DNA sequence: GTCCTTCCTCAAGTAAGGTTTAGGTCAAGG
DNA sequence: CCTTGACCTAAACCTTACTTGAGGAAGGAC
């Protein structure tokens, strides 16, 4: 059976069990350029141990909250043609460490603001520190804002009479 | 023009400028049950100030990393038929505070493990603390795992000869 | 009466990250 | 020889959170 590690290479099913990835996910990752297994004469994918390590890295990085594009970029930084060394992985890990710190700082800032808001109950678009669009740093996702650099605040300032007057719960 | 707050209700365009949401997003949120504006005789949506506050809450909760389904659930907890009070919002905010704390704890755990891994370079599926599937608590997203409770470790244990022997970089 | 703006609905498109399905190939075992 | 199990491709489908486009109607301004 093709299930075992043979001669020079691992079949996709083995890699799938090994990594916990589904076979379809591994094929998808190949399409996305995250791994590049060889092929045998029958056209079947042949993986090396280095590929398994790349896939492990993908799983880990995903758990850290990174998208496939970012992960691919990180993997592309690995020297081509040679098996990545411990130092290569360590460099990647340090990069991720920095990103995690940034994420945590953003969350901490958000939490502190939320603490300020608890008991205030304002939820005012003018006054709420959480909503305040200035601190881009704390942004977690993209959200439904106008994408084309067309700030609603800017847009509002040109339209005349509508100028709203504060929106707290306290009114 | 329909741009201003009139008699008893705000038009969608005003709400859009006010909240920074796009008109299409607001209509989408209505479909999703996040707001339920009334209609005038012409069939146009008529929003109240309470709707604007609901939408503000949606924006804030999204920044905190919650999905629309979770946000709808939170909003559904608001008493029907009456304008939400400061206490209502405060309860919601406290719930979010707890979720943020959980997220931060997860990230902190992950960061500590990553620190342990920097310099080790193993990226071993057997040994890497980051990859270790036991600590479900730190999970950030869903990932490409087998969904049907079909653990790869469990599956591996039944298949005979393939039993892999450790996958570190150090081999 | 006609124009412009804002509004309406419904359908389809987008991006990410995969899964599912349909149809086909290859090597080993009985 | 024929079946079985693992593998292959291509394309369709899924979810979330929206946007975009087509085609149309209401209502104030001139």
From TrEMBL, chains A, B:
Q: Name one Pfam family in it.
A: MerR-DNA-bind
Q: Tell me the segments the record calls region Disordered.
A: 141-171
Q: Which residues form the HTH merR-type domain?
A: 9-77
Keywords from the named record: 2Fe-2S, DNA-binding, Iron, Iron-sulfur, Metal-binding, Transcription, Transcription regulation
Q: Which GO terms describe its biological process?
A: response to oxidative stress
For this protein, what is any one GO molecular function term? Answer: DNA binding
| Signal peptide (UniProt feature, chain positions) | none
What is the recorded name of this protein?
Answer: Redox-sensitive transcriptional activator SoxR
Organism of provenance: Seohaeicola zhoushanensis
Record lineage: Bacteria, Pseudomonadati, Pseudomonadota, Alphaproteobacteria, Rhodobacterales
């Amino acid at each position: 059976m093709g299930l075992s590690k043979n001669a020079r290479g691992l079949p996709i099913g083995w890699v799938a069990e090994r990594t916990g990835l589904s076979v379809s996910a591994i094929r998808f990752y190949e399409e996305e350029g995250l791994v590049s297994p060889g092929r045998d004469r029958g056209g079947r994918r042949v993986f090396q141990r280095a590929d398994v390590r790349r896939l492990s890295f993908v799983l880990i990085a995903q758990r850290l909250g990174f998208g496939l594009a970012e992960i691919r970029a990180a993997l592309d930084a690995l020297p081509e043609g040679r098996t990545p060394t411990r130092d290569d992985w360590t460099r990647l890990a340090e990069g991720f460490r920095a990103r995690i710190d940034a994420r945590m700082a953003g969350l901490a800032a958000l939490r502190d603001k939320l603490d300020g808001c608890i008991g205030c109950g304002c939820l005012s678009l003018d006054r709420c520190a959480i909503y305040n669009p200035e601190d881009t740093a704390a942004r977690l996702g993209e959200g439904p804002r106008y994408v084309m650099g067309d700030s609603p605040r800017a847009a509002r300032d040109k339209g005349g009479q509508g100028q709203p007057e504060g929106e707290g719960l306290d009114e």
